[in-house]
Amino acid sequence: KEKEREKEKERERDRGSSSRLTPEEMEGEDVEAQLRQFLSDEQLQVHFFSFLEESLCAECALFWEAVEQYTAMGEYNEEAAEFKASIFEHYVVEGAPRQINVDADVRTALLARRDEPDPELGVFADAASYVFQLMAHDAFPKFTRSNSYFKALGASTARRDSKRKR
């Protein structure tokens, strides 16, 4: 185990400040944590969202991103109420332009709270968790095996290297 830890430390040093893993290194890793790490980098996020758009399943990522923005609003006020309504209209209601594919129980519970105030900004929590799980265990593994993933890592590495030279 000590040798494994040393190898991991060496891989970390080789990656520099980046903690992104190659597909081989990701095996056995917490895919949800890896997806969160990937989404925290705006440039890498763009590549993932583009892949999802090409795969015709971008609604998950767009919904998740909208919910992240909604919960970051901090307080439930008129602006938050309008944004909440917009999320429902774009992603949740039947026939929405980017209707998310969630389990019937999740959708029913979500729609039941549509017109209620949301002081904790948590109305979308279960649906966002469901969608995130879907991305982490379906779309993201497919992405990590695609050319888009390697292009994203290459662009990220080039950007990181150029920052080091400054």
Summarize the structure in short.
This protein is mainly α and 166 residues long. The chain contains nine helices and no strands.
Structure description:
This protein has about 170 residues and is an all-alpha fold. Helices cover about 70% and strands about 0% of the residues. It contains 9 helices and no strands. It is globular, with a radius of gyration of 19 Å. About 20% of the residues are buried.
Secondary-structure element pattern, one letter each: HHHHHHHHH
Radius of gyration: 19 Å
What number is the mean pLDDT?
82
Number of strands: 0
Largest sheet: none
Q: Estimate the helix proportion, in percent.
A: over 70%
Would you tell me the structural class of the helices and strands? Answer: mainly alpha
Low-confidence stretches: 11-21
- Summed up, the helix count is 9
Percent strand equals under 5%
CA distance, first residue to last residue: 38 Å
Instruction: Estimate the global geometry from the Cα principal axes.
Output: globular
